[in-house]
Amino acid sequence: MINIVMFGPPGAGKGTQAKLLSDKYGFVYIATGDMFRRHIREQTELGRLAQSYIDRGDLVPDEITIDMIREVIAESPEAEGYIFDGFPRTRVQAKVLDDFLENKGDRVDAVFALEVPEEVLIRRILNRGKTSGRKDDTDVDTIKVRLEKYKTATRPLKDYYREKGVLYEIDGLRSIEDIHAEISEIIDGLRNGNGR
Ligand code: ADP
User: Fold this and answer.
1) Is 86 in the pocket of ligand 1 (CB under 6 A)?
2) Which ligand 1 atom sits nearest the alpha carbon of residue 61?
3) Ligand 1 centroid from CA 95, angstroms
4) What is the residue-level pLDDT of the chain in tens, covering all 196 positions?
5) Looking at the 3D structure of the chain, how many domains does it have?
6) DSSP 80
7) What does the longest C-alpha to C-alpha distance in the chain come to?
8) What 3-state class would DSSP assign to 41?
9) Residue 128 within any structural domain of the chain
């Protein structure tokens, strides 16, 4: 089993790469943002709880996020591996994920951190907002709150994963295909037992 975390600020291309990898390797794809949006669309209790945080660019509280993740993981006990997109975003979430995988004798094998400068991120998100139907993609102030949350709550996790020896920093300004090729090569290495 191989477990992968796609890491990086909003707009870095995590979802794009995660989908390509999940198609290629058959990993179960878990995107917390997509899951929240589905709950909001279906007007579930969880969606109701999460919506106001998401609309203002804030992180949804850990308890809500973690409950949702537990539920979805329980639905795929036979998974070959997971690819997480947008999770973990806090220290608490990272610890929960580690404990959960450890209990099954597994671990986070690779964290791919996509690096993209802030002005490019804002441009990309506004551009996505033209078609995504996401309110949080159209307003510059909301986007800035999200980038700020990334810096304070999420970015420090890079050190956490670096210390564990599983962090790979990836230049996110190159083409989708080039990035995919680089990440695939690393995953192939891990699958053949040549991991760090
Ligand atoms: P992006 O990476 O472009 O910000 P996502 O779809 O991953 O988009 O996330 C959208 C929003 O969903 C976030 O701004 C946040 O409010 C909420 N969210 C997603 N994942 C998490 C998480 N792991 N913890 C807390 N909030 C989350």
Assistant:
1) yes
2) 25
3) 18
4) 899 999 999 999 999 999 999 999 999 999 999 999 999 999 999 999 999 999 999 999 999 999 999 998 888 878 889 999 999 999 999 999 999 999 989 999 999 999 999 999 999 999 999 999 999 999 999 999 999 999 999 999 999 999 999 999 999 999 999 999 999 999 999 998 855 5
5) 1
6) S
7) 45
8) helix
9) yes
Is 0.90 surpassed by the pTM of this model? yes
Contact call for residues 12 and 123 (beta carbons, < 8 A) = no
- In the block, which residue shows the tokens 């400068």? 117
Ligand 1 binding pocket includes 146 (Cβ within 6 Å): yes
Tokens 């997509």 found at? 34
* Structural domain span for residue 82: 2-191
Q: Is residue 196 part of a domain?
A: no
> For a substitution probing ligand 1, which of 7, 58, 89, 125 has the most ligand atoms within 8 Å of its CB?
89
Closest ligand 1 atom to residue 128 Cα is: 3
Distance of alpha carbon 179 from alpha carbon 19, whole angstroms:
13
Residue nearest to atom 23 of ligand 1 (CA): 87
Domain CATH for 146: 3.40.50.300
